[in-house]
Amino acid sequence: MEDKIFMSIVVGIIMMCAVYLILSKSLLRIIIGTGLLSHGVHLLLITMGGLPKGEEAPPLLGEHSAKGYIDPLPQALILTAIVISFGVTAFFLVLAYRAYQELGTDDMERMIESEDHWE
């Protein structure tokens, strides 16, 4: 039980840092913040999925399967979420690189100002 509390605090700190980065002006920091937020969600899912401790609770079905079985669904969801977050991060990086090529800056306020010149 103490491990879940500790991991919940770690997940809270990671998400706090991610929200701080997402609210910044730099486009690269926003991308890092979204990646950090997705990692925080992955940790939250794996923590709430429940991992047994010790030899008395193996993760596989066996002779003592009643108390040692772990639901594989959170692990499958996390694996899928990792692949999706990698694709989204790659798309964000390409989008940011293209925006930097066009506008010459990664500052969000300058990007908004330069958008007014296009109209």
From TrEMBL:
This is Na(+)/H(+) antiporter subunit C. The keyword Cell membrane applies. It is found in: Cell membrane. The keyword Cell membrane applies. Belongs to the CPA3 antiporters (TC 2.A.63) subunit C family. It comes from Rossellomorea aquimaris. Its main location: membrane. The chain crosses the membrane at residues 6-23, 30-51, 76-100. Keywords: Cell membrane, Membrane, Transmembrane, Transmembrane helix. It is a multi-pass membrane protein. The lineage of its organism: Bacteria, Bacillati, Bacillota, Bacilli, Bacillales. GO terms for cellular component: plasma membrane.
